[in-house]
């Protein structure tokens, strides 16, 4: 099973600044990685797939990078609606499909 | 628009059974692989099950294997999750979700709003 880890657990950022979130896989997942955003009381929403491709309707301030075992989601400049929890998920080697534990982006 | 609507969540005693349903609209359900993903209170996302577009192959997480079964009725555009031998640790919001990515990828591009399952005596 591929283990996904995310850092930091919480990231405190001021609106207008940039947030950099990290996701690491226990073994290579090539570019088969997605990022999801989840706000309190809501279902997750797809942000990035194939490590770098923005989903439909996702603003350009979201960008994904990386391949293999190291991935980054960059958000900037942060808008008020971007404060949420972000999860990465690998879909290279399954089952199981595995998610990271999440990074909470909150207001500094 | 693309929509997934879960139903069937309830409070059930340990050892009990429950069947969740997910109605799909706005896309070609018979051509789409489908997921169940759950989220325990205050916790992260956990994949539960995946079923291919035609139901030919089904996969489930180790934590539910032998207890939960995913199925679908393409004539009714409906996904199901049959749950048996429920445990307290199965308490969660259960999301129905659609596979994105055509033939290559297995990310989730559409999520339902979820249905809540509480296992408690």
Structure classification of chain A: mainly beta
Arithmetic mean pLDDT of chain B: 97
Topology, number of strands of chain B: 11
Compressed to H and E, one letter per element, the order of chain B equals: EEEEEEEEEEE
- What is the arithmetic mean of pLDDT of chain A? 97
Question: Largest beta sheet of chain A, briefly?
Answer: 7 strands, mixed
Give the biggest beta sheet of chain B: 7 strands, mixed
Low-pLDDT runs of 5+ residues of chain B are none
| Distance from first to last alpha carbon of chain A | 36 Å
SSE sequence of chain A, one letter per element = EEEEEEEEEEE
Output the number of helix runs of chain A. Answer: 0
Helix content of chain B: under 10%
- Give the oligomeric state of the chains in this entry, treating copies of one chain as homo and distinct chains as hetero: heterodimer
- Portion of residues in beta strands of chain A equals over 45%
Number of helices of chain B: 0
Estimated helix fraction of chain A = under 10%
Rg of chain B computed from alpha carbons, rounded to a whole number of angstroms: 14 Å
Protein chain pair with the most extensive contact, residues per chain = A-B, 24 and 23 residues
Shape of chain A: globular
What would you say about this model in short?
Chain A is an all-beta fold and 108 residues long. Chain A has no helices and eleven strands.
Write the layout of secondary structure elements.
The complex is a heterodimer of chains A (108) and B (121).
Chain A: E1 4-7, E2 10-13, E3 19-25, E4 33-38, E5 45-49, E6 53-54, E7 62-67, E8 70-75, E9 85-90, E10 98-99, E11 103-107
Parallel strand pairs in A: 2-11
Antiparallel strand pairs in A: 1-3, 3-8, 4-5, 4-9, 5-6, 7-8, 9-10, 9-11
Chain B: E1 3-7, E2 11-12, E3 18-25, E4 34-39, E5 45-51, E6 58-60, E7 68-73, E8 78-83, E9 92-99, E10 108-111, E11 115-119
Parallel strand pairs in B: 2-11
Antiparallel strand pairs in B: 1-3, 3-8, 4-5, 4-9, 5-6, 7-8, 9-10, 9-11
């Amino acid at each position: 099973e591929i283990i996904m880890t995310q850092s930091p657990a919480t990231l405190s950022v001021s609106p207008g600044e940039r947030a950099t979130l990290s996701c690491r896989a226990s073994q290579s997942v090539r570019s088969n990685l997605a990022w999801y955003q989840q706000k309190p009381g809501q279902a997750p929403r797809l942000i990035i797939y194939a490590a770098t491709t923005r989903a439909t309707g996702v603003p350009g301030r979201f960008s994904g990078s990386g391949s293999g075992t190291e991935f980054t989601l960059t958000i900037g400049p942060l808008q008020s609606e971007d404060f949420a929890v972000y999860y990465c998920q690998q879909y290279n080697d399954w089952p199981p499909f595995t998610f990271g534990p999440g990074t909470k982006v909150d207001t500094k | 628009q693309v929509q997934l609507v879960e139903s069937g969540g309830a409070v059930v005693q340990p050892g009990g059974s429950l069947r969740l349903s997910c109605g799909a609209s706005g896309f070609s359900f018979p051509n789409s692989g489908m997921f169940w993903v759950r989220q325990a209170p205050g916790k992260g996302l956990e994949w539960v099950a995946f079923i291919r577009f035609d139901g030919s192959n089904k996969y489930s997480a180790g934590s539910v294997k032998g207890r939960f079964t995913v199925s679908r009725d393409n004539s009714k555009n409906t996904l199901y999750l049959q749950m048996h031998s429920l445990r307290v640790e199965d308490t969660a919001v259960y999301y129905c979700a659609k596979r994105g990515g055509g033939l290559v990828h297995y990310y989730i591009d559409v999520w339902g709003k979820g249905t809540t399952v509480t296992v408690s005596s």
